Batch of 2 targets.
Target 1
Amino acid sequence: MARAVPLMECYAARIVHVGGAGAGQTTKMANQMCIAGVLGGLSEAIRLAQAADLDTERVFEAISGGAAQSWQMDNRWSTMTKGEFDHGFAIDWMRKDLGHALDEAKRLGLSAPVTALVDQFYARVQSDGGARQDTSALIRHLPEGENR
């Protein structure tokens, strides 16, 4: 690994050795599970603020400095509220990654119900023609409530 570090430093902001062969892949699966969950929560939070006729920029200002803050919030809140999804990490890629994560969880005897649910929502995005949209496009495809 030591010989590879100088090369990896050319493209990686952080290099962490997490274990033997396959450990990095499993770590990537864990990362994608976290991102999917965060984007699900952000989507619901933004829709709640919009349905309540709140100024979403003020809501962002209020909550982004606290425990809810994340890279996804900082970098996707504004584009999600504007309906801009022609950038970033494609839904197709996320579904591939979540499929691997769900398979690995099953192999390890674990359940991953939140990941499975968000993956179902991403499947809707794909079937609605959003396969190449950013993963934050999830906000457009969550199920509507009883009054919507």
Target 2
Amino acid sequence: MSSLTSNWSRLSAKLKSSKKQKQDRHSVSHGKVKKTKKIPKNETTLHTEIVEKAIDNVIKEESLLFSILWANEGYITQNDLQNRTITLPSGSNLNESRKTAPGKYLAVDCEFVGVGPEGAESCLARISVVNYYGYIIYDKFVKPTEKVTDWRTWVSGVTPKHMKDAVTFREAQEEASKLFDNKIVVGHAVHHDLEALFLSHPKHAIRDTSKFSEFRKISKGKTPSLKKLADHFLNIKIQSGEHSSIDDARASMLLYRLYRKEIEQQYKLKRSN
């Protein structure tokens, strides 16, 4: 954002100059009206507008996930998704202990960095946990247990500077274990996140959006990506650039709540067989 601010300061002078040229478009020369050529829009201005629009869209999509989760109780319907008005909690609303407490359902997502030769192996670098209403219960960067050979910032969003206040793996593991105890854990391919934390969780208390039959239909029975599910079922764009484990956790929770009844029925059938 600092680069955008500096761009605007440089652009302001250019915009004033452009405005003056527009006013003098019809200038008099030797008694004749001379038309000046139309000045094309400055390329830097176009680039800045494109970048700002992209940032606004990302912020809007991220806020929309939280807004829908927070505003609705119980099941979420397609009608609820049609309301694209973003209303985020603030002030006294955030004091609603019922909505800010961990509760029964928690969604988790992790980000990873590359370790080993060419960064081919993955190592935990961030864990985010949100509750039923999308409220952030836990969000910490984690110090990798091995030397990082590829930060994968373009996709993980993790950089070396995030390690300044990062917790140790042991701390993250212990905190996550306490949070997940006696909870329903929601996530997309959530076994990867649990494995990264070296944690186990009862199968009957896991709700994995990657395994729900209705979701798998759009990928012909294969495991669909969370990005694809969010786009298809929520009409919300995620993972447009660097991933956010908070947004991914919220997307998983929103998908679960949208099909909660059907997902619970599917899990009951599996347990009875």
